[in-house]
Structure formats: C-alpha cells, structure tokens
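=== RUN LOG ===
request id: a7f3
mode: sequence -> structure
chains: 1
length: 243
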Amino acid sequence: MAEDKNKYILSINGMSKSFGRNKVLKHIDLNVKPGTIMGLMGENGAGKSTMMKCLFGTYQKDEGVIILDGKEVNFSGPKEALENGVAMVHQELNQCLERSVIDNLFLGRYPKNSLGVVDEGRMKKEASDLFRKLGITVNLTQPMKRMSVSKRQMCEIAKAVSFDAKVIIFDEPSAALTEAEIEEMFKIIRDLKKKDIAMVYISHRMDEIKVITDRVTVMRDGTYVGTLITNECTKEDIINMMV
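=== RESULT ===
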C-alpha cells in the first residue's frame, strides 16, 4: 500500500543540480516524517551535502520541488530557511569564537526592548531556558573559543532548535567528536525526536546510522538508489546499495 504523503513533513521530488557541466544531483527524491531520523549515506561525491544545501538555500536547485509541511518552498538563502523551520548543523562550525554563547545564539536577531535597545536580560533568560530544556550544561557568558568542539557542537544544535525548527539537518556532526561526546549528542537528538522534530543525519559511519536512524536513504553518483528501514536491514545491505 502506498504511504500517505500527508504524513511527510519534508518531501524532495526530482531535485537536480549542476555546477557547470558537472551534474551533481539527478532527479533526487527524499521523504521524511515528523519525529523520525532519516540517515543519508553514499560515498564521497554522491551528492548528499549538495542536496541538503539546496534545501537550506545555500545553493539554488535547477529542477525539482521541495514540500515543507504541505507547502512548496524554495528558500533564497539560509536565513529564509531558518525563519521557516529548516535548520542545518554543519560539519565545519561557523561561529564567532571571540563572542559568548549567548551572542552566538542570537547573532543577527538580537531582541530589543521598547526603547530599541538590545534586551540582554531577555537574551540571557531565553538562552538559559533553552539549554536547560535540552539538558546541555555550558557557561553562557564564556567565549566560544574556550569551549571544546563537542560543546560548540551542542551550542549549534541549541541554536537550530531556537528557530523552532521542524526539520534539522546534521551534516557529519560526529566527525570531530569522541565516543562519549557522540553519545551525549545522540541523547539530545533522541529528545528532539520525541518533540516530533524531523532530522536528516548525514554520515559515513555505518555504526552511527544503525544506532540513531529510523530509515536510511542511499545515494550514488548524484542519484537516488533507495530507502531502507534501518532495523530491518544489515550493514551489508546498505553497503551493497552504496557501491
């Protein structure tokens, strides 16, 4: 029986993208339900990050349709994507290391009081409430440069959540983390799942994909190969689709 497409929070249909003569995406499809984690796998150059950057507005797709929460969208850039509930946690963290956690959280969208002055009290309260809800312990006034990579990663996840994201994309988020730090991140991801947030998790690490995802979509050479239910497939099944 065909799945009810109304259940999808995100649908990408027939997305294509070229850079000059190099066709990086060839009519790619992806469907993600609320409160689920979709793994995205493929060898280097398969087009995983490019597809997500087209969704996030970093790149503009050449063809295809993106449906978010029942409406067609085409974001002009990351700012518009964030304002509409799509967030992305990049592998390369793009943070102002000299500034505090609070400053980074509100960068580009400082709340102001009735006098038009930045409302630092509100920023501190909202940041404290957010990190407490997520179970993340950090010094909010500390400059980012004094924090470990894992703590900075947690701050980036908190920032994504602060935009009331319906969909969060994780692009190789564990690349610089230890096993213990990955477990800490997975705990936060599982809590987000309980809040009905949909996530796309890009990784080369098969063990992570098997542990954290509900389904896994495999791409090869810019094409869609297929989607498997994670707990019903083996690592060998995924590898066979990748190669």
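=== NOTES ===
The CA atoms of residues 52 and 169 lie 7 Å apart.
The longest strand covers residues 22-32.
=== END ===
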